[in-house]
Specification:
single chain, 140 residues, alpha+beta, two-stranded antiparallel ribbon, 2 helices
Length: 140
């Protein structure tokens, strides 16, 4: 009895597994946009804090029309540049490519060597310091 139950369980699991494997993969929804996006709107880029960049606005598609998405500041990625959103026309259809970070091939890492500061005053310097034996009262 137990043996037949095990065999039935194995056969059932193999049948279910075969049907799942034959099931179609996740469907991809796609639609064609045949209306060209308007010309980009002019936005004044604000002054951005160090370590940030300005990402320009773009036209996005919203159900049945283009809508303007305003520009924004984003954290800068060292060694990368921002490739803005763009629309391309192929045949009679328009495709939107969202903005993304691209590796900057012209970017070079420059290491700046810091000068070591002396912990003591140098007696040969022209400034008044503890090491030269002069005081401001003695000079005048």
């Amino acid at each position: 009895m137990k043996r037949s139950r095990i065999i039935r369980g194995l056969l059932l699991s193999m049948f279910i597994g075969a049907n799942i494997a034959a099931a179609p993969a996740f469907a991809q929804v796609s639609f064609n946009i045949s209306i060209a996006p308007p010309a980009p709107l002019y936005e004044v880029a604000p002054a951005v804090a160090p370590g940030y960049i300005w990402v320009p606005g773009y036209w996005a598609w919203n159900v049945d029309r283009h809508v303007w998405i305003r520009g924004r500041t984003v954290v800068q990625r060292v060694g990368y540049r921002w490739e803005p959103d763009r629309w391309e026309q192929r045949d009679r259809v328009y495709y939107r490519y969202p903005g993304r970070w691209e590796r900057d091939v012209d970017y070079k890492v420059i290491k700046v060597k810091k000068e070591k500061k002396s912990k003591h005053w140098d007696n040969n310097d022209d400034h008044d310091g503890p090491g030269n034996g002069k005081s401001r009262k003695q000079e005048h």
